[in-house]
Amino acid sequence: MLIENLPLVILALIWIVIAVIQDFRKREVDNWWNFSLIAVVLAYRAFLSVYAWDALYFLYGLAGFGIFFLLAHVFYYGRIFAGGDAKLLMGLGAVLPFSFSIIQNLMIFFYYIFLLLFAGGVYGIFFSLFLVFRNKKAFAQEFSKQFSKNNKIINSSVIIAVVSAVILLMLNQNLLIVLPILLLIFPILYIYAKAIEESCMIKSVNIKELTLGDWLYEEVSVGRKKIKPNWEGLNEKQLILLKKLKKKVKIKQGIPFTPGFLIAFLILLWLIF
Which helix (H) or strand (E) covers residue 204, if one does? Predict the structure, then answer.
């Protein structure tokens, strides 16, 4: 590892750990914290570039930020990441160009994104199981409710899966038998996820506790105006409107995903250094 990259690694670890703490405490990461990572990392790279009289170290950081800026928007508008996660990804984009080789930096980017999605997925499964264990009764009731509600989808999936399996066996396409199995698994996973959301992630809060970006669970009427749930969460105008109410509202909380960033970063460090 280049000695110049050691402060970047330390900075990234500090920022990710604090982001994890914020995520668990408030179910969000402050914008100023994410943006400060971008500013500090690029300032550090700029200082070294000026000191060495070589702009490459700074330009690679800027390029990494740009690439991850685009990826963050893809993940955000694809509803894979929330806003705080997307901004943290942008900051790490400025950190990760550890090499003076374009190819090596692109490989590092690829490894990190792959590790992030994989580690995040595994972590998400274990966290969801923790939620189920903590809310066993409510989850069981909701799972049964969702199963009944989506009974037609399940029956259709079973029929299609059985017919597909028979056809594949008749055509001697044994390797493709995994496709009918997936047709059976996906509806169950959907019901499982929906049951967790409804039984473990919906919370009633006082209006004073609402913050920017909170996700409303259901439509709220304020006089003649209606505030509908949306992926971007509450904005300032909507918060001001909601302050007029004197009741609790329901919000939807997601699984804190920042631990996935930390796990992926630690594995990446182990692999490349």
Answer: strand 202-206
